[in-house]
Design brief:
alpha+beta; Dna Ligase, domain 1; five-stranded antiparallel beta sheet; 3 domains; four-stranded parallel beta sheet; Rossmann fold; 16 strands
């Protein structure tokens, strides 16, 4: 098979691992920087050009689209879909996952539990907002943040009011979420491929920090999920239509809660923590899907 990894750099760990595993399985694999792609729209002749050269339609693509290039990256993924290439993450699923509010709405409709969340139109009634999620303390997040950026913990109404007012002044939309104290500054990352979890790790925030992201100095170790945690992760992935994703969970007194679903999760942290061949599992998923 011909497999294109849509990535901005061949030097990234995830890109290198996917190419490595695809070639080890006997496939032709290469990285394509979507920012160097042009798409041609013509009746029944969708085409992608790369550095001015027409691309042969691959059998499959693996989108590794960063949040900053979601709009154009999604357009390129959609073009490959029109060319009948299989994709591990559809253009529609990519859009859903990048919109935190929409993804949370879809998760709740599917019966997936999560921290209580409030979204308002630049609301100024902070005390009422916080009371609806059981706080303070409360977690305040911008809708388009990644890697822990734009996430704040407010211990008092006054702190929450100051943070929300600052975002309102900037016309930046936020959500306010319930703070799960019993999680102890830790979360779980379940890596879902197809209809199964192929690896999971527990991420622990460093002392004095409540965000467990590895980019924020958090540490990670392999963990065996409970049946409920595994089922929740798979259900979350399916509710957003994602064939490959990372599902972030909190362990709470009322069971596993979904924090968010990442449609372009990195492989380095999960492979390093678990020792599992996650890249290989993605290639096997493509083989199974294309040959079905």
């Amino acid at each position: 098979m011909k497999i294109n990894i849509l990535s901005r750099s061949t030097g990234l760990y995830s890109t290198k691992r996917l190419i490595e595993e695809a070639r080890a399985a006997g496939h032709i694999a290469k990285a394509i920087n979507v920012l160097h792609c042009d798409i041609k729209l013509e009746k029944q002749k969708p085409t992608v050009y790369y550095h001015g050269e027409r691309l042969v339609t691959p059998d499959a693509i693996i989108p590794r689209i960063g949040a900053s290039i979601t709009f154009y990256g999604t357009a390129v993924v959609r073009q490959f879909e029109m060319m009948n290439a299989f994709t591990t993450v559809s253009s529609m699923a990519l859009v859903r996952s990048r919109d935190k509010l929409q993804s949370l709405q879809l998760l709740t409709r599917s019966g997936v539990d999560m921290p209580k969340t409030v979204f308002t139109n630049f609301g100024e009634h902070t005390d009422a907002i916080c009371s609806r999620v059981g706080g303070p303390p409360v977690v305040i997040k911008v809708l388009e943040g990644t890697q822990g950026i734009g996430v704040n913990l407010a211990d008092t109404i006054e702190q929450a009011d100051a943070i929300i007012d600052a975002h309102n002044d900037l016309r930046t939309r936020v959500i306010v979420q319930e703070f799960i104290k019993e999680a102890g500054g830790a979360d779980l990352r379940a890596f879902v491929v197809g209809d199964q979890v192929v690896g999971a790790m527990k991420r622990q925030a460093q002392e004095g920090e409540f965000r467990s992201n590895l980019h924020r100095g958090g540490t990670a170790k392999k963990i065996n999920l409970t049946k409920a945690e595994e089922q929740t992760a798979i259900k979350a992935a399916k509710s957003l239509g994602l064939g490959v994703c990372g599902v972030d969970l909190l362990q709470s007194s009322r069971g596993p809660l979904v924090l968010e679903v990442n449609s372009s999760p990195g492989l380095e942290g999960i492979e390093g923590a678990t020792g599992n061949n996650i890249a290989g599992a993605i290639i096997k998923y493509i083989e199974k899907s294309v040959n079905a």
